[in-house]
């Protein structure tokens, strides 16, 4: 009876570049060469959703990582140098951020350290809910909904580690806030592992030189500052993540406001501009409208403008559009921008308080002056939002009175009946319209003559334009008693207690300025923490022949693992050019200055299956010598490997579980010569032989090459050498040979070297992609009880 139960199989239309199991559910994420991100369920390898490539994000996925709670999936894009955080339930992009270098590998870990200080912070972290109202939900029509708030996740610290070329390594707390930029890492990172106690970071790098083949090295960095200041790091990172989330919330709120502002609101300005350009009279537009207001008479040009171009029906529609649009924008400013700004001020003020506790937070680089600048910038943004509210309120009153009068005038021109309720116009109403004409039209005619621009009767849209230019029509501050008092007061004029208002700039401009100041405030801790990280270990392992560079780097050994119970870093790798039948195991304590006994050993795989099967099979396998194709840590004591027989024509590939207990008990010590690479002294490495009993199975009709595992969920996914053929297994259940296999398994023959047939391609592409986010949600919820058991 074969070990491990096969539960799904699929021939995929595009080669797979990355695969990663969810830490909490029986779900696996795949990225392919077409730029798609796919999520599949364990059972029958059923597709839950697919995220197609996007021009705004990119098409070249280079790495994948799950947040430890399994709710967020991170992936990096090489062509656009972006990292994207995606909602695992809805395939919705929640957040993205740019990087200076493309990412080649990523690792998302969770801190498991416990302390009374941390526990008190975990329980009190939601204190802000006592002082701040809950942020309103963004309009459902907006593509990115209020799911952005889910980015915060659990309070316990988790860190997304990113690595790339030219020594690029960065750490992001909660996947959003850059907590460290690590300088001085040589080569290109191919694998990363940050220990759960935050004491060290293990890195596998590939160092290239002009003369020699690329050299694979193991590097261990001392991240002791993060470990020593864990409560402070957690508190600071959580606050800055709140701030990053709120900035994203304000960004989306402003996007909703821009969508609420319609182009139809520009019609009045465009019509007036055209009227000025085409009119033959020397009179100004203001005079034309004043004559109509006072005498009820208009020039033929104005009458043609009103009756032929604007029309009675068009004026009515324009008035309704302005009222609807302004009301929507007004609600968004009051409910979203103001509440978001208040929350931002609250969290920045708390960070400022932390920065003044120099004994605790100064080593982390918190700068109170930079935080004060950020608070001032948020205050300026709040002032600008309030200014927009005043402009909207005034514009709504002005337009209502102006359109009411103009509507009656146009009805009279067309000799239509004027409703009695509209026919009455007091002297006060006439004065109000005259003031509106005087304020909006005379300025704009001068502006048109001076800059060649159109009329700007509509005053709200200029605040929503993402431009560096000054406002075309800034608010009139003449007669403002407060501003007059400030100008005359020598003490208050330059007071740091007052937020600058930037009256000439748009809301978008002030928002960008605020983001820039906050970004500067966030950068300092990342630089200080990054400079504190020092290289503790650098071990050159072996060289990679240029001929092997066609293999996707994402699947290549070495692979890294952190044993949280014993606080050990593990690395597993092969040196096929030196010893093709050996698998090497490197281990280091997470404390880089603590020596480890038996730090390096080799596992002999040549006869690993010799005595583990019945008589008939024994004859076939006793002469087989196995080499390792891929190896991944299943748990602290087990390694999952894909083995390949030296005589391929007699025997296929094998999936096996290697128990590491006996290998780790090896008492023989290896004395590493630091002047030589490991492959140059491999003969002295202690070797331990292993013989498996029943923890293996043949991978029939499949040229298996790579494997991804999840020891918590007890599952594995095997990928073929052509990167298109996948099989998934439950690793703790034996397969019954007589059991009826799913259709997908019966339909699979050895097609690894062939193109997929239309039927298989249809199965891979069709039937599972329909239904969108709702179906994905239903599928995820339907298996919740089983998955979380």
TrEMBL record:
The subcellular localization recorded is: Nucleus
All residue ranges annotated as the Anaphase-promoting complex subunit 4 long domain in the record: 218-416
Return the annotated region ranges for Disordered: 732-789
- All copies of the Anaphase-promoting complex subunit 4 C-terminal half WD40 domain together span 560-730
Q: Which GO terms describe its biological process?
A: anaphase-promoting complex-dependent catabolic process; cell division; protein K11-linked ubiquitination; regulation of mitotic metaphase/anaphase transition
Q: Where is the composition biased (Acidic residues)?
A: 732-741
Q: Which domain of life is it from?
A: Eukaryota
Q: Which InterPro entries match?
A: APC4, Apc4-like_WD40_dom, APC4_C, APC4_long_dom, APC4_metazoa, WD40/YVTN_repeat-like_dom_sf
GO CC annotation, single: nuclear periphery
Endpoints of the signal sequence: none
**Any idea where the Anaphase-promoting complex subunit 4-like WD40 domain is?**
19-110
Q: In which pathway does it act?
A: Protein modification; protein ubiquitination
What job does the chain carry out?
A: Component of the anaphase promoting complex/cyclosome (APC/C), a cell cycle-regulated E3 ubiquitin ligase that controls progression through mitosis and the G1 phase of the cell cycle. The APC/C complex acts by mediating ubiquitination and subsequent degradation of target proteins: it mainly mediates the formation of 'Lys-11'-linked polyubiquitin chains and, to a lower extent, the formation of 'Lys-48'- and 'Lys-63'-linked polyubiquitin chains. The APC/C complex catalyzes assembly of branched 'Lys-11'-/'Lys-48'-linked branched ubiquitin chains on target proteins.
Similarity annotation = Belongs to the APC4 family.
Q: Spell out the protein name for this chain.
A: Anaphase-promoting complex subunit 4
* The species this protein was found in: Oncorhynchus kisutch
Lineage here is:
Eukaryota, Metazoa, Chordata, Craniata, Vertebrata
Per the record, the gene is ANAPC4
């Amino acid at each position: 009876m074969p070990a491990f139960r096969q539960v799904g199989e699929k021939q995929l239309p595009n080669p797979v570049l990355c695969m990663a199991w969810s830490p909490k559910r029986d779900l696996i994420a795949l990225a392919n060469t077409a730029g798609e991100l796919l999520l599949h369920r364990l059972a029958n390898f059923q597709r839950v959703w697919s995220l197609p490539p996007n021009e705004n994000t990119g098409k070249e996925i280079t790495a994948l990582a799950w947040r430890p709670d399994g709710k967020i999936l991170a992936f990096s894009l090489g062509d656009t140098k972006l990292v994207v955080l995606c909602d695992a339930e809805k395939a919705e992009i929640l957040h993205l951020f740019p990087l200076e270098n493309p990412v080649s590998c990523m690792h998302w870990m969770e801190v498991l350290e416990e302390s009374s200080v941390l526990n008190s912070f975990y329980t009190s972290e939601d204190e802000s809910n006592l002082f701040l109202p809950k942020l309103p939900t963004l309009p459902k029509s907006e593509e990115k909904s209020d799911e952005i708030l889910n980015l915060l996740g659990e309070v316990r610290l988790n860190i997304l580690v990113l690595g790339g070329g030219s020594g690029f390594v960065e750490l992001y707390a909660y996947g959003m806030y850059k907590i460290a930029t690590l300088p001085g890492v040589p080569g290109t990172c191919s694998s990363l592992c940050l220990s759960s106690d935050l004491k060290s970071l293990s890195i596998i790098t590939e160092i290239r030189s002009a003369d020699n083949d690329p050299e694979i090295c193991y590097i261990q960095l001392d991240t002791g500052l993060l470990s020593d200041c864990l409560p402070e790091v957690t508190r600071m990172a959580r606050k800055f993540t709140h701030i990053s989330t709120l900035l994203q919330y304000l960004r989306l709120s402003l996007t909703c406001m821009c969508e609420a502002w319609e182009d139809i609101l520009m019609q009045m300005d465009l019509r007036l501009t055209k009227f000025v350009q085409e009119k033959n009279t020397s009179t100004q537009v203001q005079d034309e409208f004043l004559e109509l207001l006072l005498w009820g008479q208009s020039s033929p040009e104005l009458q043609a403008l009103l009756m032929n171009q604007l029309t009675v029906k068009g004026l009515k529609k324009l008035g309704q559009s302005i009222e609807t649009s302004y009301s929507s924008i007004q609600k968004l400013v009051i409910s979203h921008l103001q509440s978001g700004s208040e929350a931002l001020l609250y969290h920045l003020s708390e960070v400022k308080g932390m920065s003044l506790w120099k004994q605790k937070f100064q080593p982390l680089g918190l700068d109170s002056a930079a935080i004060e600048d950020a608070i001032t910038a948020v205050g300026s943004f709040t002032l600008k939002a309030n200014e927009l509210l005043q402009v909207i309120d005034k514009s709504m009153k002005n337009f209502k009175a102006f359109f009411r009068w103009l509507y009656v005038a146009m009805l009279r021109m067309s000799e239509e009946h004027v409703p009695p309720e509209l026919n009455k116009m007091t002297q006060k109403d006439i004065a109000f319209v005259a003031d509106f004409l005087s304020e909006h039209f005379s300025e704009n005619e001068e502006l048109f003559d001076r800059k060649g621009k159109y009329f700007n009767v509509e005053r709200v849209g200029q605040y929503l334009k993402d431009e560096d230019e000054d406002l075309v029509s800034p608010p009139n501050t003449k007669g403002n008693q407060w501003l007059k008092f400030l100008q005359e007061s020598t003490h208050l004029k330059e007071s740091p207690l007052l937020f600058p208002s930037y009256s000439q700039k748009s809301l978008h401009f002030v928002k960008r300025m605020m983001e820039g100041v906050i970004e500067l405030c966030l950068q300092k801790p990342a630089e200080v923490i990054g400079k504190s990280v020092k290289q503790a270990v650098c071990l050159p392992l072996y060289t990679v022949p240029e001929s092997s560079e066609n293999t996707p780097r994402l699947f290549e050994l070495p692979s890294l693992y952190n044993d949280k119970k014993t606080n050990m870093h593990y690395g597993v790798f092969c040196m096929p050019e030196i010893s093709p039948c050996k698998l090497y195991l490197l281990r280091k304590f997470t404390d880089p200055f603590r020596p480890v006994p038996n730090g390096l050993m080799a596992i002999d795989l040549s006869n690993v299956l010799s005595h583990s099967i019945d008589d008939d099979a024994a004859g076939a396998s006793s002469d087989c010598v196995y080499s390792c194709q891929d190896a991944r840590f299943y748990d602290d004591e087990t390694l999952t490997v894909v083995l390949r027989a030296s005589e391929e024509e007699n025997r296929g590939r094998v999936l096996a579980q290697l128990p590491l207990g006996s290998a780790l008990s090896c008492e023989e010590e290896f004395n590493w010569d630091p002047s030589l690479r490991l492959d140059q002294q491999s003969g002295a490495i202690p070797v331990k032989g292993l013989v498996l009993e029943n923890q293996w199975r043949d991978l029939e009709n499949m040229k298996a090459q790579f494997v991804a595992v999840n020891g918590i969920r007890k599952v594995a996914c095997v990928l073929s050498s052509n990167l298109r053929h996948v099989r998934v297994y439950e690793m703790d259940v034996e397969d019954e040979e007589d059991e009826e296999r799913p259709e997908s398994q019966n339909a699979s023959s050895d097609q690894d070297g062939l193109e997929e047939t239309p039927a298989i391609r249809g199965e891979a592409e069709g039937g599972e992609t329909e239904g969108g986010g709702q179906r994905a949600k239903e599928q995820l919820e339907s298996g919740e009880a089983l998955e979380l058991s």
